[in-house]
Design brief:
27% of the residues lie in helices and 25% in strands. The chain contains 7 helices and 15 strands. It has helices at residues 43-53, 67-70, 73-79, 91-95, 182-185, 190-202, 220-239, and strands spanning 2-6, 9-14, 21-28, 31-35, 57-61, 84-88, 124-126, 131-132, 135-139, 148-152, 157-159, 164-165, 171-172, 207-209, 216-217. The strands form 3 sheets. Strands 1-2-3-4-5-6-7 form a 7-stranded mixed β-sheet, covered by helices on one side. A 6-stranded mixed β-sheet has the order 8-9-10-11-14-15, with no helix packed on it. A hairpin with a 6-residue loop joins strand 2 (9-14) and strand 3. The longest helix is centred in the C-terminal third of the chain and has 20 residues, at 220-239.
Length: 240
């Protein structure tokens, strides 16, 4: 996996030039927080990256429960039995393979690869506004009903999961990018995605780190443009 550093954030990328799948190691005083768990065959590369940094992984935090974000979870947990595993309370259901919707949620079907046989049970169910280490949990439903982003309060860096994508061009989740259509295909609800993107934009992050694509420094202008495109396309779709 390719490692890219931005201050205390390390982006680990599997197949960066073909089908980039990212996870992140965040340096904390007590060790490392791993955000997302990539694919099943990435477990050893993630462990090697942590060893290279010379710190233990003490937390595994999941932005959402799609297969390409939780793939190595069981293998990692087997090697890190004391690591705290955290996910939003809502997407904990998806982690169990439960695709059912709550009565208050839009009835669009949950899409994408939802795990079927994950043995790991989360220790911590996150709600909007919770703190985990230096990270502020920010509810960002849309790609999945319980998607979460994480704002590093030390420097304003935003790890957004699939609320945005960079591969194929910066886009709000659900907006098609023909060169990399997979996040759009796997998005549950475009309207919710737009609302979440607007909320994340309002945080004015110093860095945007996503599930698919390279890090983007000073991302606000590009995020604004992506939100405008999503607003326009959704407005047109509502008319038709």
């Amino acid at each position: 996996m390719r490692m890219t550093r931005h201050q205390h954030i390390y982006q680990l990328t599997y197949l960066p030039y073909v089908f980039p799948v990212n996870c992140y190691l965040i340096e904390e005083e007590d060790g490392l927080t791993l955000i997302d768990a990539a694919l099943p065959n990435n477990a050893e590369a993630i462990m090697q990256a942590a060893r290279k940094l010379g710190k233990p992984i003490v937390r595994i935090v999941l932005t959402h429960a799609h297969d390409d974000h939780i793939g190595a979870l069981d293998k990692l947990k087997a090697q890190l039995p004391n690591a705290v595993v955290a996910i939003s309370a809502r997407d904990a259901r998806l982690l169990r393979g439960d695709r059912s919707l709550e009565p208050s949620e839009p009835t669009t079907p949950i899409r994408g690869g939802v795990p079927k046989n994950v043995a790991t049970k989360p220790n911590l169910l996150l709600q909007d506004g919770d703190r985990i280490g230096s990270l502020l949990a920010v509810a960002a439903p849309g790609h999945t009903p319980g998607s979460m982003a994480f704002l590093d309060t030390r420097g304003g860096e935003l790890i957004a999961g699939d609320a945005f994508q960079r591969r194929g061009g910066l886009a709000v989740s659900g907006q098609m990018r023909p060169l990399f259509p997979f996040p759009a295909w796997a998005t549950w609800n475009k309207q919710q995605s737009l609302l979440s993107a607007q909320r994340l934009l309002a945080l004015k992050p110093s860095l945007l780190a996503v599930g698919h694509g390279n890090l983007l420094a000073s991302p606000v202008a590009a995020m604004e443009q992506a939100v405008k495109v999503a607003e326009r396309k959704l407005a047109v779709s509502m008319v038709h």
